[in-house]
């Protein structure tokens, strides 16, 4: 009795990690996980954060620039100048006199303030627009990630359905094989029928292993798509492939698509870039000032006696005005280049609008076709099931051959696989249709 309790306890202990390792994922949960953990989403968030730092950097150029500096100079040989001797009471001679001191120190604080600089003002506008661009680009990145995760998610689910179909077919074939073996043992059936059943079982087992291998790879692809550790197991809910025909009632405006908003911000940035090039035609005006102190003497000036080192403060205030006159047409060339870039962006936006309109119409048509195909395949599965049941019943009564039974089972499996494929195609078309209407984030509300 004690041994039995120990075995039960060990079974519970070793079963806990397996339960904790599994993650039951709905599509909404998979998308949320990806938006929090996937590298693309994290980098897009960092780009938005970095945009604020770009604004801070641009603002800094419009604020006073204050610097401090200091220097220590030693002059082993002082330069001499020739002076007429009359200046010192020695007429007719040329006297060589040294100017300056062996040691000197200098410390100064300077300030510079832009009073008018058109390029700085344009840069501030561009910085704010750049932040808005990265915010919209983050939304686009999130939508692209949602689409990628949804497609990977449904690929896993399709393979799981295929695996279930093959498993069910394998179980039914094994049951049929058991019945035939009993008939062979009783001398009521041929051994070749049992051999053919075993061959069918072996083929189904091989197919099941192939699907399992593909399922493992596809699950790993899904984990990578959402940024999940590979050692975690995922379980998808059974209701994932629900059909929603009312989706065709949705509609959207191409101009509301995030792709268009990104291009609009790009055009706005290129317009500001053109204005920044034009700013080279404007004069610039700045204020500058300095305050310093100069020490000179024959001895090392720091901590020296005041009779050996003398010093004095100094300061200056000024305005700097720069007026561009002629630079060989370089500014005009830069403006023309910026204008070409702006025109190209506008052409790209019109082409993108056309492409998005085409994608919208194609997605709507694909949804309609997918709904028809799913409905047809569901009816086909029902008919294949009825044929299989009738064929098995006829075989029991000697009215059908084993070949007909195996063919009916294969037909039923093919019908189920076709249904699974059509369901996947519908879901992929559904994702494309939701994307075409600019509503991919609605998947987070499901």
Automatic annotation (TrEMBL):
Coiled-coil residue spans: 194-221, 335-394
Statement: the UniProt record of this protein carries the keyword Cytoplasm: no
Keywords: Cell outer membrane, Coiled coil, Membrane, Signal, Transmembrane, Transmembrane beta strand, Transport
Subcellular compartments: Cell outer membrane
Pfam families assigned: OEP
Main location: membrane
Segment forming the signal sequence: 1-21
Family, as annotated: Belongs to the outer membrane factor (OMF) (TC 1.B.17) family.
Protein name: TolC family protein
Organism of this sequence: Niabella digestorum
Highest classification ranks of the organism: Bacteria, Pseudomonadati, Bacteroidota, Chitinophagia, Chitinophagales
